[in-house]
């Protein structure tokens, strides 16, 4: 059975089970269903718990595996935070498994997704290291933040 490492995130109370097919699954509250517990999913569930529990992000405004079309191809954003008014994308979060290094290629991926969504904040995490940047569309600049901001600070 897959052993999942401790992460550089607060511990999360996850609901896990082993299904009849022998696959270990975790309950994803945003998708309201059990999904396969992969290393990337381990990071996603802990990060979403951190955002909703520690940083005050409303789960009702968040979605996991949000579908977009990029250059005629279907893609899925790991997590998207939407605004209260009009459900405009505010933040995209991209996850990698803990053993995957956060490289320029990972940032390139989230930037491609943002070409469709035009979110103001982009976050990348492998559960061990987390990066957050704010996009200034008027000045055409990017500012990296020391931490993911609390929801009230957005």
In short:
The chain is an alpha+beta fold and about 150 residues long.
Topology overview:
Elements: E1 16-18, E2 24-28, E3 33-36, H1 39-53, E4 62-70, E5 73-82, E6 89-95, H2 104-117, E7 121-125, E8 130-136, E9 141-145
Parallel strand pairs: 6-7
Antiparallel strand pairs: 1-2, 2-3, 4-5, 5-6, 7-8, 8-9
Q: From the alpha carbons, calculate the radius of gyration and give it in angstroms.
A: 15 Å
CATH architecture: Alpha-Beta Complex
Strand arrangement across the biggest beta sheet: 4-5-6-7-8-9
- In DSSP terms (H or I, runs of 4 or more residues), the helix count works out at 2
Helix content: 10-25%
Strand count: 9
Can you tell me the CATH topology?
Answer: tt1808, chain A
Low-confidence spans: none
Helices and strands, in N-to-C order?
EEEHEEEHEEE
Strand content: 35-45%
Shape descriptor:
globular
What is the straight-line distance between the termini?
Answer: 40 Å
Number of domains: 1
User: Structural class of the secondary elements?
Assistant: alpha+beta
Q: Quote the average pLDDT.
A: 95
At the first level of CATH, the class is Alpha Beta
Largest sheet: 6 strands, mixed
């Amino acid at each position: 059975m897959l052993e999942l490492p401790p992460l550089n995130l607060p511990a999360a109370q996850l609901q896990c089970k082993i299904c009849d097919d022998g696959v270990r699954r975790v309950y994803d509250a945003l998708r309201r269903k059990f999904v396969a517990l992969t290393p990337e999913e381990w990071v996603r569930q802990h990060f979403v718990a951190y955002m909703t529990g520690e940083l005050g992000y409303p789960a009702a405004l968040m979605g996991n595996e949000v579908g977009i079309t990029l250059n005629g191809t279907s893609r899925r954003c790991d997590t998207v935070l939407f605004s209260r008014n009009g459900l405009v994308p505010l933040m995209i979060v991209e996850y990698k498994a803990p053993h995957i290094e956060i490289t320029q290629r990972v940032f390139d991926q989230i930037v491609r997704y943002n070409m469709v969504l035009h979110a103001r904040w982009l976050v990348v995490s492998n559960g061990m290291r987390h990066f957050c940047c704010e996009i200034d569309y008027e000045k055409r600049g990017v500012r990296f933040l020391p931490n993911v901001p609390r929801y009230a600070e957005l």
